[in-house]
Amino acid sequence: MSFPEGFLWGGALAANQCEGAYLEDGKGLCVPDMILGGDQNTPRTICKIIQEGKFYPSHEAIDFYHHYKEDIKLFSEMGFKILRLSINWGRIYPHGDDLEPNEAGLQFYENVFDECLKYGIQPMVTLSHYEMPWHLVEKYQGFYSREVIDFFIKYAKTCFQRYQHKVKYWLTFNEINAGTMGDPLASLMGLGYMTKEDLQREQPCSFDELKDNPQQRYTALHHQLVASALAVIEGHRINKNLMIGNMISHITWYPHTCHPQDILAWQQKDALFNDFCADVQIRGEYPNYMIAYLKNHQIDLSYILETDLDILKKGTIDFYTMSYYISNCVSADPHAEHIGGNLVGGVKNPYLKASEWGWQIDPLGLKYTLKAVASRYPHIPIMIVENGFGAVDKIEKDGSIHDDYRIEYFRAHIQAMSEAIDEGVPLIGYTSWGPIDIVSAGTGQFYKRYGFIYVDRNDDGTGDLSRYKKDSFTWYKKVIETNGEEI
Q: Where are the domains of the chain?
């Protein structure tokens, strides 16, 4: 077991899934504030207007906004070296296109970062973690409008200038490759994009009713890639010591069989989902395979301007980060058995077990993935910024929570990380998702829990928000204390 000295152990959170206080201190409405909860069998519902008597999970979440000192102290007790957080764009610019930032929002995050630094925890900040102001969706269709690039850069520069001496590590967009999927929930949360037809609906509708327009979606994704590159350029201009990275939702794909058709189907799926956005952000240009894919799918590429190509070349990132939860198989056989997963499902792997939510558990896949990423992008540091296990936890009468299943999941994945490091992967950090129970982005549930810390909160909004340590809390504390020698 050979984690390097100074390895960054910690955890990861998203503002919309933990903060609550959804209209407090001048914050504007953001995309998650408009989405009702669901479950593994019921798609979430989008509402254009907040409906009385309906439960919106993000409105209070776990109330990190008022509990952040208590929660950061617990993270410190575990020994965190780093805490990945996000800034909610709507706390800083309530409508997204405001002339001036909201000072109360800026001060809140300054207080949070100071609290982290007090305990020797480095904050790592995601600028946009599925938290676009709702006004930008309604007026501009999110990043489908090129104007939104300028609004994002203004917001990014405000954050860089304000926090440059408190925050070294920055990520531009969370799981930016979600924009390749065509899933309406991913498109709305990641790109702020909805078709005009869906925006004109008067009644709430579930996400499985929404439409996808690939031409507009890939236009929006391109604008987001340009915005990311510009943010890197501006961040380095403000402070050359800032480390600014990307964030990829890495779903490891395997060919279901060795049939050549399965191999080719896997190759295209892997390139489109895992490689495309990272290639642009690290190599600074669109790869040939993606240009061919877009043309073959009748996508008009006139949205790619000559000036954009120069920006992409200049705005390459400093380090590569990813989420890793699952692997899935790919098959050319339309009748192959499918299974669910993070953002997108796939063909079932007969050699793997799955969680209650259908997420296949594959720690060896993490080792494979780390080695593949390191081989594709040599000489750039790598961080795992999301990895965790969603499960139903039972709180005992004495307040204890015995989550051996979660410890088993983490132990196997940390072992895989260690082996990858031993085989040359430049892995510099690991932030588990999420270190405290939060709202699930996909289903809007509290029932699906990830944390080392239990929060008394239920899917109907009941619960007093008390915090309790799970068995995994003590276990992860030991892992960090020994720098991964004792797992």
A: 8-481
**Model-wide pTM > 0.70:** yes
DSSP letter, residue 360:
B
- Are the CB atoms for 8 and 81 separated by under 8 Å? yes
Per the annotation, the verdict on 386 as an active-site residue is yes
CB 281 within 8 A of CB 316: yes
The three-state secondary structure class of 418 is: helix
Instruction: Indicate which residue of 131, 386, 408, 419 is catalytic.
Output: 386
| pLDDT at position 1 | 57
| pLDDT mean over 178-207 | 92
Domain 8-481 carries which CATH code?
3.20.20.80
103 is catalytic: no
Q: Which of 440, 465, 444, 442 has its CA nearest to residue 455?
A: 465
DSSP result, 33-70 = GGB---BTTB--EE-SSPPTT---GGGTTT-HHHHHHH
Residue 154 structure tokens: 């203004």
Which one, of 381, 359, 438, 320, lies nearest residue 11 by Cα? Answer: 438
